[in-house]
Amino acid sequence: MIRRLCFVVWAVVVLRAYYAMVGFSPAALWTVLSSLVPSPLPVSTEALLRAGGRGLAAMWVLTAAWGAGWFALRPWGMAWRDRFAAAALSFGLGLGILAYGILGLGWAGFLQPWVIRLVLGVLGAAGVFAGIMVWKRGLNESIPAASAAAPANDNLGSRWRAVFACLLTGAAVALVPFVLAPETFWDAMVYHVGLPHLYLLEGRMVPTPANIYSGNVMTVQMLFTAALAAGGPVAAKLVNAGMGLACCLFFCSWARQRRLPGAGLLASALFFLCPLVFYEFFRTSVGLGWAFFQLAAFHCVMAAAEEPESSSQRKKWWSLAGVFLGLAMSTKYPAWLLPCALILAAALSRVRSLGLPAIRVREAALCLGVAVLVVAPWLGRNLSLLWGSGVPVSHGGLRARRRRALRRWPGWGGPDAVRLREARRQGLALPQQ
Q1: Could you give the percent of the chain with pLDDT greater than 90?
Q2: Domain boundaries, the chain
Q3: How confident is the model at residue 62 (pLDDT cuts 50, 70, 90)?
């Protein structure tokens, strides 16, 4: 007790000396803290109702994703080990289904807000129904009771649990005004939200050669498109925050499976309170979506490796790992390095001295093959948009008229792209911009 008091006194002396040296007064500290809070705050009735409406819109998008994933995973017959993993993987698969559904609407030229709202309405109703089913009967009756029950010993302790719970709650409360504030992140305004907004205005995906980011893989941006149609840019930011919070489900799952009570809460606090991760929560970006899909793929790989080689569940887990690996790769091009990690893990599993679970070559090939199939629609979309806009695909000047291997839909790039292709076909001189 005496040591603790001495440490507190020493900390107060050091802090006071530091602030006195830089001429920092308590009044100046309050001014700085006040400037961190965006203005205006949602304190009026109208602002509160507006914020509540955007929150409900984001919640409905997330519920729609949960419903789609829950119904899509039921035919798989997965043997879940705990409810946290079942909820996280159902939600993640639903996010992918919703994103690729929006991509399909943009591909077909039906990217209208009322169409997206209709789709969200159907999937949201399915999500509500799935929630009622889970409440009544549980996620899956095959979850063993021993895995769901917490062991008697408590490694973290109730006091530390309370501390980390208060930290998470305080951080979540501190995020509220930042998440509800208008978007100022440059990347979001240019392409994370800017391109989906343009697609909604056009009713389809159009080539934007002036935007160097328009050739990115944009699975998470398709989710932002659904949120824009449902509730606007703030709803998209809330959807991004929801994907970040869903990452904590995996930490809780791993802690429960390994009989480490409190470890999930500790890992969630360390993840959530990391400055870079915390910063990702109040801007509309793809980092949290990438992290969520990557954690889902990692969870499926671990579950598959722990299954007996003769088990029918092993192939299902590897297939699901490929789906989430493809979804992670379809969020950002740097995620295309993830297959290298899988190949390295398969190679290390062959070293018997390490004692790692064996990863067979055909299992890794299955995972990679499914991932390539998941990413393939984005490659087709990007090539079609780039070729339809007259922009060379490669630096060397790969032109569409010299490479006819891929048939392009004539109306894909819109009327401007069609006229541009006709002018190029006839050899007409194009005006210089």
Answers
A1: 41
A2: 46-148+158-392+407-413
A3: very high
Query: What number of other Cβ atoms are within 10 A of residue 201's Cβ?
Result: 10
CB neighbour list of residue 190: distance below 8 Å, 6 or more residues apart = 211, 213
Sheet strands (E) in 24-96? none
- Tokens representing residue 345 in the block: 């893990």
Please give the structure tokens belonging to residue 91: 């939600």
pLDDT level of residue 31 (50, 70, 90 thresholds)? low
- Name the phi and psi angles at 21, rounded to 5: -70, -40
The larger pLDDT score, comparing residue 262 to residue 325, is at: 325
At residue 402's C-alpha, the angle toward residues 397 and 405, to 5°, is 110
Write the Ramachandran bin of 299: left for phi over 0, alpha for psi from -120 to 50, otherwise beta.
Answer: alpha
Contact indicator for 167, 265 with CB cutoff of 8 Å? no
Residues in the chain: 433
What does pLDDT average to over the chain? 80
pTM metric for this prediction? 0.79
Segment 352-377, tens digit of pLDDT: 777 778 888 899 999 999 999 999 99
How far, in Å, CA of 409 to CA of 273, rounded?
A: 47
Q: Give first-to-last CA distance, the chain, whole Å.
A: 74
SS3 track for the chain: CHHHHHHHHHHHHHHHHHHHHCCCCHHHHHHHHHHHCCCCCCCCHHHHHHHHHHHHHHHHHHHHHHHHHHHHHHHHCCCCCCHHHHHHHHHHHHHHHHHHHHHHHHHHCCCCHHHHHHHHHHHHHHHHHHHHHHHHHCCCCCCCHHHHCCCCCCCCCHHHHHHHHHHHHHHHHHHHHHHHCCCCCHHHHHHHCHHHHHHHHHCCCCCCCCCCCCCCCCHHHHHHHHHHHHHCHHHHHHHHHHHHHHHHHHHHHHHHHCCCCCHHHHHHHHHHCCHHHHHHHCCCCCHHHHHHHHHHHHHHHHHHHHCCCCCHHHHHHHHHHHHHHHHHHCCCHHHHHHHHHHHHHHHHCCCHHHCCCCCCHHHHHHHHHHHHHHHHHHHHHHHHHHHHCCCCCCCCCCCCCCCCCCCCCCCCCHHHHHHHHHHHHHCCCCCCC
Question: Would you say residue 150 has pLDDT above 70?
Answer: no
Confidence of residue 158 (pLDDT cuts 50, 70, 90): confident
Contact criterion met (CB below 8 Å) for 387 and 414: no
Q: How confident is the model at residue 178 (pLDDT cuts 50, 70, 90)?
A: confident
